[in-house]
Structures are given as structure tokens and as C-alpha cells.
């Protein structure tokens, strides 16, 4: 009898403990009892060389235009790519071309179509004596045919050509773009080339990039108008590497994956793709399928997600802070905590999903968004969003902001700085339609707010198309940056999902993750706040490179430790792979002359050897 009473008593205690635990987990303020994990910001160390500078020839690229606005835009775009890649450059006037010293490490880039503006005799002499020349846009002028390697022309194409076919390995990851792609649209000059010209890229059998030997020098001709695009900066950068005896460019080695609108209110009910494939509500699909896959990717590929949250999807200001807290307790607590435990970052997206613009500022009308009355109304929304976040995560700071639909303007940035001064980064788009209000950015500090850094996103969605792969590869080729975003509800949207269900979308994106991990293992997965800090240090570092016939000497000031460089040597030459006192050398692809150099010391001498 006593034993029975004891068992009943123990059962009662267990029941009461279980009930208490259940009630505890249902508490509105569980976050105040169990403090959310805080991830320390990653520390990126730097190193500096002491003593004499490297000895040898210095590579430099010189840009000259034809006086037109289009050539100015072209040269500014291409030189920005060189700036990212840490390749020295200078803008020249046409009159200064005659002062250039011919050298295989001096590259003259002529941008524009008005060839009459350029001094032919001086340019020819520069190339004939060993200089390198790149025409950055197609033009038709018979006086330049011989220098450019053109046998005959048949005028400008009446119709554009589409796609790219690569006939030479320029950088790992560039794949063929078929003629059905809407991305690579080439306005070309129809040509036949001289026998000694070498076609490197073509489009529907029309040469787009070729090289031509002339005297002691080399000439490269870009038969397109596409180089005004940011998405060809990396390709242009590495075409310079093909022109010179040896070539060194920098890699920031940064990979950022954003999950936009997360955590956010979860739609009620189900959707056709989810219901048909899983028989689940949207909420259960997110929790049991989608989020589990996100965590699996994080563990397998080391991803550290940055997830900007949304308070509400209402377009008005009706919800108070308390209203939002009551509606968001479960998803903000569960997903936010698990994100932080996976070393991710919670960023800020908005009080609601209305872009921070007034009626006087542009916004894509097709989105149907409600403009904010003024900055005061914006700031009230931001105050509520800040209080909402601090309720759940009192020990966290919001450092990163993603504009809803990538639209923001001066009023919104001012409001953001007033109410959330801890925001250090705005992440919008690398390429954007400014006329519709989309906020296009470079990787740089804001001109007005000195601590605010711009870190645009370059690619998006789960289902990668060939043009997405090209754009991603080009940014890596340029300076080693992946900046990608998607949304939890992309799978629910037939347009964004491309009529694919989650199993197909998951397979598509994992294929890309495998490619990134296998082809570019030096890219470091980081949160937005850490990527910002690393990229700033990369940009502020000074890299000095000196070239000679048998070596490349590198000397750095305040360069990252480790630092990553891409090095190309000309055909028939090689670097010794393996471990060295200064770091490590790895060949990127067989017989391409491309190497990854990982520096763990600020000075290095790379010996160039014969095959």
C-alpha cells in the first residue's frame, strides 16, 4: 500500500513538472528567462610587410575614352572592377596616350566607338614596341583593322546575337550561355579575322573577344557593347590577365546568404505545391521540411544565414508593438533562436513590407505598395519595429538592413539612421532599375553617413539559371564575393519557383552550393555583419606587386591574414604548387595557368618556372 502511494505521488510530481514545463514554454516572456545566444563578431586580423618594397615592374592599366558620355560610363564601370580586384589603374586624356611607355605590363584600354578621337600612330607605336591594347567596345574603322586583327568587316549586325561560347579557359565556373538566354545580348560588328587572330569568346559563331599579336605587343578586341554592365567586370578583369605575362588580383573571399522576410508572420492554410507534395499547412511545411533543410545546409556547407525579419505584412500602421508581439511570439522565438544557435544573424527588413519611400520618391507601381506619408511616419514604424525586436532579443543589436523589395530612398535612409543608428549595413541590389526606385549599390561606404556601408546582393532565388551562374561566377572572378538571397515563400510563388516544387528547388540550390564548395573552397561563409567587416579590411589593405621574367614579388600593408590571390602566368609557365614559407599555392584548373595563392605572411616571392 505504501509502495502504491509512493508511485502515485511520484507520478503526480512528474505530471506537475511536465505541466509547469509546458506552461513555461507557453510563457510570453520565455526570452527573458532563457537569454538568447549571442554570437560574437568575428575578428579579422591583418598583417603588414616590413622593409623594402618589392622590386620589378609594376603592372598598370590606363583608360582613355573618345570624349562621349557612353565611353566615360564604360571606363568608369570597368575601372571599378579593377578597384575591387586590387589592380592598379589610371584614367588618361587622349593627349596623354603619347606619353605611355611601351611595356608588356602597361595596358591601354580604349573605350568608345569614335576611333577618330584616338591618335592611331601613337597607339600603334605603343603596341609595336611591346605595349598591350584592349578595345573595350566594337567600332568600325578600316584604319584600325590591321592592328585589331580584322581581315574584313560586313557592317554592324542588323540583329543582336545571344549567349557566350568560351574557346579558352578564362576563370573557373564560366559556362556556355546558350542563344536562348536573355542575359547576354550582343550588338556586334560582323567580321572575319586575320589568320593569326585567336578567338576567345564567340556569340552565335560571331567573335566577341579575340586577341591579335602585333609587333612585340598584343591587342584584344571586345566586339560587344556589354562591358557597361557590372556583371561583366570579372570577365573583363581576367581578359587583362590574358594580355600580360603574369597577373595578380585580390579575392575578398566572402560568401553571404540572406533569407529575406524571416522570421515573419506565416500565412495561414496551405498552398497547392505544399499540399500536393507534403499534405501540410504552410506553417508545418516551414517548420518540418523547409527549415530542417536550411539547417542541414548550414551544417553541411558551413552557411551562416543573415535573416532580416518583418513585423507584419499589413500595409497600414494599425498594429501596436503589443499587437505584433502577441501575433509573432511563436515564430520570432522559435526561428530566431535556432538561427542564432546556428551562428546566423537576425537583420531588419521592416515594421511592415512597405518600402521606405514617400509619394514623391520612385517605387515600382506594379508592387502596389503604400507610400509613407513622410519621414515622421516612417520613424514611428521603425520605433515600433525596434521595440518589437528588443522584446524578444534584448541582448542583440540590429546591424544589417535589407529594404523591402530592395527599394529605398533618401528619406528612408535618414529615418533609419535617426531611429536605428546601430544599423551599419544596407544590403539591396548590385544591378537595379533606379527609375522604378530599386536601390542599386556598390560595395562602399555611404557618402553622407560615414559608418553606413553598402553591401549589395548579386544573385537571388533557389532555382539557378545559366545566367545566374554566370553572374555569380563573374563576381567571384572579380573579387571573390558571393551575395545571394531568397525567401521562404519563394516555393509558394509559381513565378519565383518556376513551376517547381520544393524537392526540385532544393536540388537546384544544393547543386549550386556544391559548386561553390568544390570550385571556390576559399570563400568564407559569413553573416552580413562579419562580411562587412572583412570586406572593409580587404578594401582598405594595400597590395604591391612587382613582376619580372622569373618571379612575382608581393608585399602587403594591412592585408588580411590569410589573404587570397588569383595568379595567372602565361602559357608554358607555371608556379610550384604546395606549401611555401609564405603560404600555399594551388592550381585552379589544369593547363590554364591560373593559381590560388593563400598568403599567411605579408611578403612572398613566387617563382615562375617552365613546364
TrEMBL record:
Keywords, alphabetical: Membrane, Transmembrane, Transmembrane helix
Q: Which domain of life is it from?
A: Bacteria
Pfam families recorded: DUF2194
Say yes or no: keyword Transmembrane helix present: yes
A Gene Ontology annotation in the biological process aspect, one of them, is: carbohydrate metabolic process
Look up keyword Membrane and say if it applies.
yes
Q: Write out the transmembrane intervals.
A: 6-25
Under the heading CDD domains, the entry gives: CE4_COG4878
Q: InterPro entries in the record, alphabetically?
A: Class_I_gatase-like, DUF2194, Glyco_hydro/deAcase_b/a-brl
Q: What is this protein called?
A: DUF2194 domain-containing protein
Q: Which organism is it from?
A: Rossellomorea vietnamensis
Q: What is the lineage of its organism?
A: Bacteria, Bacillati, Bacillota, Bacilli, Bacillales
